Amino acid sequence: MNKVEQSEFLIEALPYIKKYFNKILVVKYGGNAMTEENLKSSVMRDIVVLNSLGIKVVLVHGGGPEISQTIEKFGKESVFIDGLRYTDAETAEIVRMVLAGKVNKSLVELLERGGGKAVGLCGHDGHLLKCEKQDDKLGFVGKIVGTDTAIITDLLGLGYIPVVSTIGYDDEGNVYNINADTAAAALSGALNAEGLILMSDIKGLLENKDDPDSLIKKVYVSDIPAYVKQGIISGGMIPKIECCKEAIRRGVKKVFITDGRVPHSILIEILSEEGSGTMFL
User: Fold this and answer.
1) Of the candidates 60, 64, 61, 62, the residue with the CA atom closest to the CA atom of residue 85
2) Four-CA torsion 275, 223, 26, 250, nearest 10 degrees
3) Do 266 and 10 meet the contact criterion of CB atoms below 8 Å apart?
4) Dist. CA 236–CA 247, nearest whole Å
5) Residues of the chain with pLDDT > 70: what percent?
6) How many angstroms from the chain centroid is the CA of residue 25?
7) Is 168 in contact with 131 (CB distance < 8 Å)?
8) Residues with Cβ within 8 Å of residue 3, at least 6 apart in sequence
9) CB 186 within 8 Å of CB 144
10) First to last CA, the chain
11) Per-residue model confidence as pLDDT tens digits over 14-36
12) Burial of 208 (0-12, 13-18, 19+ CB in 10 A)
């Protein structure tokens, strides 16, 4: 990008910076989009850029590939039911170790190396994500039944970027594995966020799943049942789109699905007219 192009981008970005200034933006980052280290560092720098522009970013992360690798090292097998990881008590402890420990702290380190101030949290901290079992057949997969976002609000007020690993708790001391999209939708609603970005390893909602050029740029919640009926929303996209719908139902203004493997996709999505993925309204 030459200097003229840089200037044009800044001019285009200015109204979007004003729109999100001092507002909360929840970013969910997970899946295979997290596996390439250089790209992960780039995404964290982009989040620091947004934070430096006065946008209050909350980063919510998963870490499925890391969990699967660690479970294998423990001699266990990853089992998935309806797209969700079966989580017995031992697996829940492994998930906590990986997400709240290794993955969370590595993201905090990258954010701080990029010039930001970050604090790592999990759902246990400050009673952030209270859970019960979603379904007995899934074991300790958490259904969120309560949120207390005071600790996040306090950190945002001090200029920190909260980094939340999706581990939940209950009053009996059990550990719960929570789907990261679900956690991000719940937190964005509880925080009255201006926007939610689901960064993953998909481009967005495609009219034809085999044609990457068939991206649907804008979807209204009222359109979703028709897309399901037509088969445009199917399989693993159904729960992801349900999370988009749930966030909007909770009061989030806009929800985006964008490809975390594309460099600077988060900046393009938030600070340009064109965007890079699918926007839900």
Assistant:
1) 64
2) 150
3) no
4) 18
5) 96
6) 10
7) yes
8) none
9) yes
10) 31
11) 888 999 999 999 999 987 667 77
12) exposed
Distance, in Å, from the CA atom of 229 to the CA atom of 258, rounded to the nearest integer, reads 23
Helices (H), the chain: 3-20, 37-52, 64-73, 89-96, 104-113, 150-157, 180-190, 224-230, 237-249, 265-271
Res 1 pLDDT > 60: no
Note the pLDDT of residue 3.
66
Neighbour-count burial for 164-198, b at 16+ CB within 10 Å, e otherwise: bbbbbbbeeeebbbbbbbbbbbbbbbbbebbbbbb
Helix 237-249 and helix 180-190: axis angle, to 10°? 10
Euclidean distance between CA atoms 64 and 246, whole angstroms:
22
* Cα gap 228→25, rounded to integer Å: 28
Q: For the residues of 189-208, what is the DSSP string, one character each? A: HHTT-SEEEEEESS-S-BSS
Furthest-apart CA atoms within the chain: distance in Å: 59
- Pairing state between β 84-85 and 80-81: antiparallel
Print burial letters for 46-76: b (CB count within 10 Å at least 16), e (below 16): bbbbbbebebbbbbbbbbbebbbebbeeeee
How does pLDDT run across 68-111, given as a tens digit for each residue?
A: 999 999 999 888 887 789 999 999 999 999 999 999 999 999 99
Q: Alpha-carbon torsion 13, 17, 19, 23, what sign?
A: positive
Q: Are strands 56-61 and 161-165 parallel, antiparallel or unpaired?
A: parallel
Q: Which two tokens stand for residue 78?
A: 């990853």
- Taking the C-alpha atoms of residue 39 and residue 260, their distance in angstroms, rounded to an integer, is 8
| Paired tokens of 9 | 């981008």
